[in-house]
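Raw record, unedited: EFCB1 protein
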Amino acid sequence: AAMSRKGMKLLVDSLTRSSKHFNKSEVECLVNLFDTLVAKASSDFAGVGFNRIVFRDTLHSAFGMTDDVVLDRVFSIFDRDNDGCITVMEWVEGLGVLLRGTLDEKIKHCFRVYDLNGDGYISREEMFQMLKNSLLIQSADEEPDEGIKDLVEIALKKMDHDHDGKLSFMDFEKAVRDENLLLEAFGPCLPDIK
């Protein structure tokens, strides 16, 4: 359903006020893109938002994000009310963090992506799953899972400051502040710099 000019202006004004990362014309562009995606989705959420498939295709084509596990996690983080649909507000706020987020926001975002079961920790198993998805290991003489297990142990040694065998948010945050390259240690969950 096409929105009236006045409705569009009110929406853009409201989203510009709530967005810390985009100016008014950027919000307008994001809302227009959102409308295009909703039209493309032709799903159960007609007019309200779009689903996981459209989201995945969009992030894949716009930002080169290809890892399905990561994209599903990013979708879950965008989809704040967990209804399977990305609304315009979730879209603008989510992209704000993804594209222009502060280091703090990006640390929170990446941690939530890697914490697959949402228990507040990144466990050995979660690290293993994420690394297994994001690495291409080609070695004839070595069992690929062994290489990934070794990487998990190296990551724990470097990042697990309280030595409890898993990464709390505080462990992760401290490690990333000490060494920014560790932000995406377990797989790419932010767009390419381009």
